[in-house]
Amino acid sequence: MDSLDFILIFVAIASFFFIHTWRSNRNNPIINLPFFGMLPSVLCNLSNIQDYATTVLNHYGGTLMFKGPWLTNVNFLITSDPINVHHITSKNFDNYIKGSEFYEIFEIMGDGIFNTDSHKWKRSRDILHSLFRQNSFESLVVKIIHKKLESCLVPLLHNASELGTIVDLQDIFQRFTFDNICSIVLGFDPNSLPNKLIQFPEIAFEKAFNKMEDSMFYRHIVPRFLWKLQKWLQIGQEKTYSECEKIIDQFLHQCISSTFQEQSKFNCTKHENEPKFNMLKAIVEESGTEQIDRKFLRDNAISLLAAGRDTISSGLSWFFWLVSTHPLVEAKILEEIRANFIHREENWLITSRLENLNKLVYLHGALCEALRLFPPLPIEHKSAVKSDILPSGDRVNANTRILYSLYSMGRMEQIWGEDCLEFKPERWISDKGSIIHVPSYKFIAFQAGPRSCLGKNISFIQMKIIAIALLLNFQFEVVKGHNVCPCLSVILHMKHGLKVKVTKRGIIN
Predict the structure, then answer these.
(1) Phi and psi for 330 in degrees, rounded to 5?
(2) DSSP 191
(3) Is the pTM of the predicted complex or chain greater than 0.85?
(4) In what order do the strands lie in the sheet with 499-504?
(5) Cα→Cα distances 494→151, 160, 314, 346, 503, Å
(6) Among 6, 237, 272, 346, which one is least packed by beta carbons within 10 Å?
(7) What distance in Å separates the CA atoms of residue 296 and residue 116, rounded to the nearest whole number?
(8) 8 Å CB contact between 152 and 193
């Protein structure tokens, strides 16, 4: 028997196992094939991965052990069961950490709050929590947003409405939030959003951020050894990753050096007026220049920039798409705004004062509903320190990689009912007209447990102010035939943007 006969016999046996496996599992949404595992099923549905994952999890009762190709160590447990998520994020919090694999995938984040565990995470969280509680921080955020709305975003959309030009609202929101978060964290406005429809400036730092997100998603779907090899050879996505990392590090190094110089100058001169507040300076002041190093500032700065830019812009994009395609919801939001505190002599800057925002119950419900259906971070990672048994009965071995799908959790009938796929702000409002509290392990857009988002309240403040300003001034109509769907990224952006026609409207019409 020659080598050709051996090859033919091997192919015949392999074909038999493949056909047998396929026929016995053809009614399942995901098939575990010999050698290749479940990866082919995922790759075939990659363009619609979030909805596909939701279908698979619903089929398997909310929890599945994913089997990757043999010898690749790409196995992980994925769940959308809220009781499991509560166990992982709260009840047995110490046993579920970010872990080394998460750190490698998101290595650009360094030792920032999103990437670390134990004492490093606690140190970052304690410092940032102290800053978020300061009245000066909230005032700074509101002031910056009002200024950018008045000087750039509202005039830009006025210009678009006058010219009848189609605009990409997602790109506009990304630029708007990028400028804002740079001002808040770094004390520097890159001015990526103009106030007229001219050619938008290309900011290298912002562009590097976008490409970096694509590269981090790539690391999720290919075996670790493959992207590690590409990184070593500096080819493909890993070459792009390295180039973006250099741009980001160079930009942050300049900002941090400026912060240290200004703080040193302030300490020496003892000037009566404090330097202008921004988060980098506040972190230095909170910890003292002697107790803090540049790497700590760099790592937490990039975490804050990512959170402030991507989560807000993603949330706003999906919110305005949903509102613009649900005219009854839009009418109710406008009616609520006007009924509570709009008068003819007022404008949107007056009406968006903080004490008035809590009155907007229906707007709050609409924002929660958008975040439920389209959470900016669609999936989260953990790694088990020790063996454990989840409330669902699934066993978790030590070092098992665990994913929980925030996207799928927002579309589960057992949590939200049979109308879970509908955009329905009313589900958040009680019979008495107040907001219904939903536990964070069910409404997971802002995470849950000790790692719950520090910026939840300020995020709602930002989104409400922007929603008031834009909805009172403009009507947005999605371009006919425009395909709105999630893109393949670690952040739930829209694949083709949000192309809209902008129409100006008066405050009281």
Answers:
(1) -60, -45
(2) -
(3) yes
(4) 166-168, 499-504, 474-478
(5) 26, 21, 8, 35, 22
(6) 272
(7) 12
(8) yes
